Amino acid sequence: MTHKTITPGGTFVVEPRRLSKASAELRARGFGEITLPPSTETAEKQASRCTDCGVPFCQNACPLQNNIPDWLRLSAENEVREAWRVSSQTSTMPEICGRICPQDRLCEGGCTLNQSGWEAVTIGSVEAWIAEQAWRNGWVEPIRPLAERGESVGVIGAGPAGLAAADRLRCEGYQVTVYDRHDRAGGLLIYGIPGFKLKKHVVQRRVDRLAEGGVEFVLGCEVGKDVTLSELRDRHDAVLLAMGVYQPRILSAPGRGPDSTVEALQYLTHQNRRDLGDAEQDGWHEARDKRVVVIGGGDTAMDCVRTAVRQGARSVTCVYRRDRDNMPGSAREVQNAEEEGVVFEWLAAPKALLSQGDAVTGVRAQRMALTEAAPGERRNIAPVPGSDFDIPADIVIEALGFQPEPFAAHEPDLKLRDDGTIKVGAVSFATSLPGVFAAGDAVRGASLVVWAVREGQDAAAEIDRYLKTRTQEVAA
């Protein structure tokens, strides 16, 4: 990618602005991060492009409200340690958000340069670079509360919301225990997001910092099965529900049987476990030499198609019912996937699964057309008569999103919304149970990691107020 600048003489000069990526051929061979880390000179030059707007649209577009202009200016002035201090004030995971946030839809999309027709400052890469400098130089301080508090908080879920809350609560001196069903902490950061977007050691060092700072992790513990919510309420002075949403939405089409498709998260988890060095297990899915069809258009679908490429699939096709402009996933991820050889069937919806015996052989799809949108609403889709076509497939991966798992059975007095998410107060994270709070995808539904971090931090602040005042807005 290039960017135009104007010299004092009035002529245009075209110079590179985007960070370099490994070639598509090279990066498809493995699961390393595809973006090449910037040099100090490159990061400082990129940061210096910030125009220090009177109204920082980049900050307004960031769910964490990061002080982006401030740490960009400090980075440009070679005050990287101070830039780190400012960056870490608003985010417990800047090195993670800098890597995986869809900046094109958030801060960089709101950048004034971008709005003016120029390329945005590469805010995410600078954020990640600042954090890496901090880790490398020992600026990431251990958690050392000024004073220990006697109250304890139980956090259910070791994903981004739970980890962010645990960080803030432990810094305030609370005794924090995090419970998670998996054998590692990190949630989707560890098992859902591929290594080519987020190296696992980046997550693990955050977990290690929490553990070294006094946060206790109880892993392999499923609430409702190994321990009840009532027991945790008796054990702790406050409880935060941050378990995310993991139940996949299921394809409804003729020919779909119990073993005819693969769930996206299951598929990604198997590969992430390989990357983490776990021993291969029976039933782990791999796409080598197979024709792969992924159904869906979000970031999880992009993770699946790009994982299949790296596993050596013979062909990879993504089927999405709307067009490119209406795709919910990051435009950058779509571009990366196309560079790596993924074929996109836009405006196509699965109509049936084809099989021979017990083996899937393909997907029968139908072309769709976008309808006119009602005021303030998204354009809908309608099938095009007589437009059926078949896509050969050996593996069909469902990436249709996630919904909450049944939780009410564990605690009948916990109020849920109609969609199964946890109901909280109008302006709070308090649930219908006194002393119990909820944040992240368990409340919002499937969303971005950055929103989970934001809500985890905010919920921690509310729990802090509750434990100090014993007042709470209970969800009606």
From TrEMBL:
Record protein name field: NAD(P)-dependent oxidoreductase
Signal peptide: none
Pfam families documented for this protein: Fer4_20, Pyr_redox_2
Species, as recorded: Brevundimonas albigilva
Location of the FAD/NAD(P)-binding domain: 153-456
NCBIfam families in alphabetical order: gltD_gamma_fam
Keyword match Metal-binding: yes
Keywords of the record: 4Fe-4S, Iron, Iron-sulfur, Metal-binding, Oxidoreductase
Record flagged with keyword Nucleus: no
